[in-house]
Amino acid sequence: MQYLKPQSIEEAADILSRNAGKARILAGGTDLLVQLKSGMIEPEMIVDIKHLDGMHDITEEDGGYRVGAAVPGIKLGQHAGVKALWPGVVEACELIGSTQIQGRCTMVGNLCNGGPAADSVPAMVAADATVRIAGPNGARDCAVFDVPTGPGKISLEPGEFVTSVFLPARPARASDAYLRFIPRTEMDIAVASAGVSLELGEDGTITAARVTLGAVGPKVMLVENAARAIIGTTLDDDAAEALAAACRDAASPIDDKRGTVEFRTQVAGVLAKRAARIAMTRAGEK
Amino acid sequence: MNFPAKTKRDFKVVGTRVARPDGVDKVTGRALYGADFSVPGMLVGRILRSPHAHARIRNIDASRAEALAGVKAVVTAADFGVPEDAALRDIQDNCMAREKALYHGHAVAAVAAKDAETAKAALKLIEVDYEVLPHVTDVDAAMAADAPVVQEGRADETVPEGSGPNVTMYTEFGHGDLEAGFAKADLVLERSFKTEATHQGYIEPHACLATLTGGRGELWCTTQGQYLVRELCAGILGMEASQLRVTASEIGGGFGGKTTVFIEPVALALSRKSGRPVKIVMTRSEIFCATGPTISSSMDVKIGITRDGRITAGEATLRYQGGAFPCETVSMGAQAAFAAYDLEAVRTYGWNALTNRPKEAAYRAPGAPVSIYAVESVVDELCQEFGLDPLEIRLRNAARDGTKASYGPTFDQIGLVATLEAAKAHPHYTAPLGENQGRGLSCGFWFNFGGNTCVSLNLNNDGTVGITEGNPDIGGSRASISMMAAEELGIPYDKVRTVITDTNSLGHNDVTDGSRVTFAVGLATIEAARAAIKVMCARVAKIWGIDEEAVVWEDGHAKPSGPNAGDFDPMSIEEIAAIASETGGPIAGHHEVNAEGAGVSFGVHLADVEVDPETGATKVVRYTVFQDAGKAVHPDYVEGQMQGGSVQGIGWALNEEYIYDEDGRLQNAGFLDYRIPVASDLPMIEPVILEIPNPGHPYGVRGVGETSIVPPLAALSNAVSRAAGIRLHELPMSPPKILKAMMSKG
Amino acid sequence: MKNIHVSTTVNGDELEFVCAPGETLLDSLRDRLGLKGAKEGCGTGDCGACTVEMNGEIVCSCLVLGAEAEGADLRTVEGMATGDKLHALQRIFIDEAALQCGICTPGILVAAQTLLERNPDPSESEIRYWLAGNLCRCTGYDKIVRAVQSAAAEMRGA
């Protein structure tokens, strides 16, 4: 195995495209090293990209923020601007692993690992975030929602890799929240999770919403019926219950060592309801 | 000088909170644990493990592995003999499968190579031809007549005819007329329980470094007992004990799980074959798959009670599985189940069955947590039925001095009532509870052990003292041993240094288990100190020209016993040491004993939990532990045992479990999904130490290490039942189970 | 397989080592530099026994490649004491019996040191969540949390 440190994004893309299936990207490494050591993957080369230009940067762009692929969770959590604009995305990213993992893990890695229970992904999808993808044919942008395709699978072409996430601008009275359920208080993979992003009108009713679920399907789910259930309401109890019901209807989880179908379905609704209330409060306070 | 059998004494050192002698090494990273020791020319050993739960090994072809550059040795069961002793054979077969792989992760071959990469590559080149066999992992399924047969012919003479093929033992304890007892009850409840296996979860992996060349062996390993390791390894490798020296490293947690061997005989065999030192360090997944889990259980408990709270009879049937080899842990579960109660009629029955799971290893009070959980759950449910105060009912029925224990003996001085009274008087018991909160309590019990112990105490020329003992220090015992020596000698704690030695430097010492070290090594240390004091008094008597009996030892000085003995200035231990060569030579004391009189230990735990009504998540919000320590030698470390055991029990109650898939493969062989409690899961654990002296120890010490893991299981289940209005009869009480119960209740 | 030359700073000392491309920083520290204070408890980032500080953040050194230490500033448990003088955390961990077997202790001390440098007065809950990635199976965490609180108080006063 080789450890490579390309000097440019182009060089990295070149290495990746010439060694499709044999090279793996290293940024935070918190998933990659686990897979390497367990023998789950046996790449011929590791391509370290975190020293490349922009990978560690969080920059303002069109009223939103562009977050480099190597920005670890702890740095995102320290960024007042992102925290104010997308608190739900930040809290989701901060839930990945322990303090030690936070020092390394990245949202991009969390996304590209393709795990259905990845914490930052439902929050990013609720935020309608996009990623910028570098590749042999130059850069392209893609909705976060379209990156994962199933457990451990993503839609990137050979030679492509994600260089940043873009969290868009949003109106004044808008916010988001993310919640997950784990059996302990830390250190577990989400058994079910929910992200909610919403915007309030002048009268305090919800004018726009995106509701997402994690760990209850092969990939992150965008539950449009759940959003519809709360748009036009002030998230009264009936609306919150309708949102929860829509999430339960949408959830299609599996039974495994982390939870049962029944539990995941039920709790997905509970989490969506609770996350919506938090997002509502946050938006109202702005 | 004569030593009174029981001294009511004011302790000077015992009972204080001194700094442990190994502390600095352990906070600076200098302490050497199992994996921290290396020697030049060392090879790396790796083990190939069965991917199947149950499979006949038709053939192993290691030729390609042996041909790989850098591979120095490959061993399989063929490289070992077949010990005649069944228990030793089981231990060997657990280290390296012979004929059949009996569980997922069972070792089938091992490699020693120049480095880890080569060893890993070599494992892939070993071809094992398996015939996959039907398997069984559930205890009830394993008990059935038509269950897949794990091993033929392992039933012992206790097993009644007609039992299933996997049943290996049956046991029964109790006294009195059950039928008459149940007839006197106003209510008889019968409940069935199931509990999953848990793992000790020590953070330090099993690790060893073995050299065996020219018939002589050196073994460095992390263990709770270097002497047992020597005995087992010498037996398996066909060596005499004198030819194998075992040195225990610092041990990074054991909890019973390091009281046997897994990799040590394999490393020795690889070293013998390669002629080089071989180091093996287990991975965490190997640890979960192939070491130490507890039994899992299925249990029926029946208890009768009168309306005013007198328990009239108790009966329990326990079915345990301890993996693929015979296991007698159910016997301890059956003896412990009703130990906290003074009953006229009580009976427990225990069955063990083989399954395709790893061989059970001891874990803190082995067998007791689950049987007591079942009994304490039924007692609590009876209290709920009649609206009785659960603490009052325990007090009403508590075992006390003179109670004939359910397992046979009559209790001498025990601390259960005092412990219950302390819980009753504690503000926790009456503190208000919040919404969705409930309070539970449970009693706990452990026998405690003494056992074979050797201690050597040497007086240095400057009057300081060195102690050599043979039990690995798993949580501060160097400190407590030094303290007892200092106490007895009447010298400051920092004048004593205790070291733990290898197998060549002392006679046999039993394993650090059974909560025995502070009791038995402490006892031997006190006796060794007394032996040294006798020598010192004799030397001084000689100097003073008086009778030995006329010299007494006080506060580190030899003194005349009274005015009649003569008028001499006291001689300090330093003065005596300084002139030892002129009075007869070096001064030492030693003591060898198979210690008895360990003294049982009772505890009571109070737990407050909050259950999220929408998710079933349980949070422990307050926790108090009351336990009888006899005499707390080092209160910090007594508290530490109480707190640590409690948290292990909390993990057992809430989230820890072995999860097998339908192919019998372990699904959660890592700390990610085997969920031991993390810091943020817990409140402070308040310890309340009771001191009801154990008549079997000069200072009244009782073992404290194990009792604390017992009560949390029922304390939490009882608390959850009050918080959520549902009662589970199954552990762990993971959120899906609690939520399901709450939802079906509506 | 060609080894990689790495120049790095460990506890203030500029050091060099060679490592295999797939070798973890934990193995490099232990086997190349002889710093055995960081322990491998799981190898998957779940136990925190291998915690070291890298460029100001605590990391699981089992999830970092040795090669990634090039140019890095590392701190390990071996660097906490000054000569014979223990760091307040080390001393108080001994005084308050915050360790039993001691295998998790180096990782916890490193993590706690970083916490207290960043937050001199953490709440109990902040300590518990900061240390949630450091498993301890012996103590039930009670005395660990208290020792960190005591050290914080002493360091604030100093």
Q: How is the secondary structure organized here?
A:
The complex is a heterotrimer of chains A (286), B (746) and C (158).
Chain A lengths: L1 E3 L4 H10 L4 E4 L5 H7 L6 E4 L9 E4 L2 E5 L4 H5 L2 H6 L1 H8 L4 H4 L4 H6 L7 H7 L3 E5 L5 E4 L4 E3 L2 E2 L6 E7 L6 E8 L10 E9 L5 E9 L6 E2 L1 H7 L6 H14 L10 H25 L1
Parallel strand pairs in A: 1-3, 2-3
Antiparallel strand pairs in A: 4-5, 5-10, 6-7, 6-10, 8-9, 11-12, 12-13, 13-14
Chain B lengths: L22 H6 L14 E7 L5 E7 L1 H5 L3 E5 L10 H10 L4 E2 L5 E7 L2 H10 L1 E6 L6 H5 L23 E9 L2 H7 L2 E9 L11 E7 L2 E6 L4 H12 L6 E5 L15 H11 L3 E4 L2 H7 L5 E10 L5 E11 L7 H8 L9 E8 L14 H19 L3 H8 L18 H10 L1 H4 L6 E10 L4 E9 L5 E5 L7 H13 L6 E5 L16 H28 L6 E4 L2 E4 L10 E2 H6 L1 H4 L4 E8 L5 E11 L6 E11 L6 H20 L30 E6 L20 H14 L5 E2 L3 H11 L1
Parallel strand pairs in B: 1-12, 8-27, 10-11, 14-15, 18-19, 25-26
Antiparallel strand pairs in B: 1-5, 2-4, 2-6, 3-5, 7-15, 8-13, 9-10, 9-12, 13-14, 16-24, 17-18, 17-23, 20-21, 21-22, 24-25
Helix pairs in contact in B: 7-8, 10-11, 11-20, 12-13, 15-16, 19-20
Chain C lengths: L3 E7 L2 E7 L5 H8 L18 E4 L2 E4 L12 E3 L12 H8 L9 H14 L5 H7 L11 H16 L1
Parallel strand pairs in C: 1-5
Antiparallel strand pairs in C: 1-2, 3-4, 3-5
Helix pairs in contact in C: 2-5
List its salient traits.
heterotrimer; B: 746 residues; alpha+beta; Aldehyde Oxidoreductase, domain 3; Aldehyde Oxidoreductase, domain 4; 3 domains; seven-stranded mixed beta sheet; C: 158 residues; Ubiquitin-like (UB roll); DNA polymerase, domain 1; five-stranded mixed beta sheet; 5 helices; 5 strands; globular; Xanthine dehydrogenase family protein molybdopterin-binding subunit (chain B); Ald_Oxase/xanthine_DH-like (chain B); AldOxase/xan_DH_Mopterin-bd_sf (chain B)
